[in-house]
Write a structure and sequence with these properties.
Layout (H helix, E strand, L loop, with lengths): L1 H15 L9 E3 L7 H11 L2 E3 L1 E4 L2 E6 L13 E2 L3 E7 L2 E4 L6 E6 L17 H5 E2 L2 E10 L5 E6 L4 E3 L2 E3 L1 H8 L5 E11 L3 E10 L7 H11 L10 E4 L16 H4 L13 E3 L4 H15 L8 H29 L3 H94 L10
Parallel strand pairs: 1-2, 15-16, 16-17
Antiparallel strand pairs: 3-4, 4-5, 6-7, 6-8, 8-10, 9-10, 10-11, 12-13, 14-15
Helix pairs in contact: 1-2, 7-8
Keywords: Coiled coil
GO molecular function, one term: medium-chain fatty acid-CoA ligase activity
Pfam families: AMP-binding, AMP-binding_C
Length: 435
């Protein structure tokens, strides 16, 4: 939006010799970082103070430049709510000193207490989103000695060129100076030997042309980027692709555009996604749909304008659909054959699912039988253990009785010897009793 305002003001200034009159006193941004070149140009053209800020849905705000006093337009500002630090990265939760790049983390203040953990989720989202209570924003940045934060881009958007981490944010900021580009985004292009290289998806100004060779030559002359950061592919488009939230959709853009990986050493490459009028027309319809904006606060006149735009879009889409239907009429036989094959595959799938269910039921029965057999075996072991203990007790009692009998027999033998000894002492050698 800020770029569109700037371009409008520049067009008016070019036509009338002066920028449009306005009563603006302050321009600020939110969410994604404002490109420094855009911020500086807005101040110069509109003569209005620009206040870059930084925020996200989970924490509003995070950082902001002050309205008065020292501002740094290349920075998103100083702490403006929550505690703000630079963390080394997950799972290492150590903090980095001033000037070092890492992940921006926030805590306390307006920061959300966490995400909802729904039943359909495979894992708790808060485990990865928070580290030691700090919310991981997913943004790469650093803080200078004055406490101003600078963003380099989203970690998942960083371009990894043979280990060199390249910020698409800084590449885009440099590309804004090219006279042929109306708008652009930097994104990762696959490379067979380097992994990824820098690509540019750009919208050209009316009457302008640009090749990758011209773009690389311009980059070398202006000396705004390192050699490794210079784009190696240019994709010309009618408009920049955006996601549902209206932000540039740079993630997996190379895959969406069916770009083939570059080979060998870096080289010039040109690619145009919309080579045919039909693809361009459908893309323009999609882009126009994304521009429709209506809410409860929309006025009746605006509603009427949006409805008229919607009808025009529907008419174009209907005409495109009719042309597409005529082109695909010849493929009906092939589609019918594919439908029959799909039905056969579905029938086979149902048979396979039935067999899986039968095997699962059999497995459940076997598991139940195994559990019952295990329980019976455990019961028998317990009975054997009880019988063994009883036998041990009886054996101990028998041993005790035997010992008692042995002692009794020993006493009786001793008494018998004493009796024999007395009898022997009372008889003479002939066996007669002594008188």
């Amino acid at each position: 939006m800020h770029l569109q305002i700037l371009q409008f003001a520049e067009e008016v200034a070019k036509e009338k010799g002066k920028p449009p009159e306005n009563k603006l006193e302050l321009i600020r941004n939110c969410s994604a970082a404002l490109l420094p070149t855009v911020a500086c140009a807005m101040e110069e053209v509109l003569k209005v103070s620009v206040m870059p800020t930084y925020a996200m849905t989970e924490s509003m705000p995070i950082a902001s430049n002050p309205r008065y006093g020292k501002r740094k337009l290349r920075s998103v500002g100083m702490q403006a709510g929550p505690d703000m630090r630079i963390m080394n990265g997950h799972p290492d939760c150590s903090f980095l000193p001033v000037g070092e790049e890492g992940e921006v983390v926030v805590k306390k203040g307006p920061v959300t207490s966490g995400y909802e953990f729904r039943e359909h989720m495979d894992a708790n989202p808060n485990v990865e989103a928070f580290g030691d209570g700090w919310l991981r924003t997913g943004d790469k940045g650093w803080i200078d000695s004055d406490g101003f934060m600078y963003l380099c881009g989203r970690f998942k958007e960083i371009i990894n060129r043979a280990g060199e981490k390249i910020s698409p944010f800084e590449v885009e900021d440099a590309m804004r100076g090219n006279d042929a580009l109306k708008d652009c985004i930097a994104f990762a292009v696959p490379h067979k030997s380097l992994g990824e290289v820098v690509g540019i998806a750009g919208v050209l100004k009316d009457g302008k042309s640009l090749t990758i060779k011209e773009l690389r030559s311009w980059c070398n002359k202006c000396d705004k980027l390192q050699a490794k950061w210079i784009p190696e592919m240019l994709v010309t488009m009618p408009s920049i692709p955006k996601g549902p939230t209206g932000k540039p959709a740079r993630i997996n853009l190379a895959k969406k555009l069916d770009l083939e990986p570059l080979e060998g050493v870096p080289k010039d490459a040109e690619y145009s996604r919309f080579t045919d009028s039909r693809s361009r027309h459908l893309y323009e319809i999609q882009d126009r749909l994304q521009e429709l904006r209506c809410s409860r606060s929309t006025s009746k006149v605006q509603w009427q304008g949006e409805v008229a735009a919607w009808r025009a879009i529907c008419m174009d889409a209907r005409e495109a659909g009719e042309r597409s239907t005529r082109r695909t009429a010849a493929n009906e036989a092939q589609r019918s054959a594919l439908d029959r094959e799909i039905q056969q595959l579905r029938a086979s799938l149902q048979d396979a699912e039935g067999e899986v269910a039968r095997l699962h039921s059999m497995s459940s029965s076997l598991e139940a039988e195994r559990l019952r057999a295990t329980e019976r075996a455990r019961e028998e072991v317990r009975e054997l253990e009880d019988g063994e203990a009883q036998l041990e007790a009886e054996l101990a009692a028998a041993r005790l009785r035997a010992e008692v009998l042995r002692l009794e027999c020993s006493e009786e033998r001793k008494m018998c010897r004493q009796v024999v000894a007395r009898l022997t002492a009372s008889q003479d050698p002939d066996g007669h009793e002594k008188r």
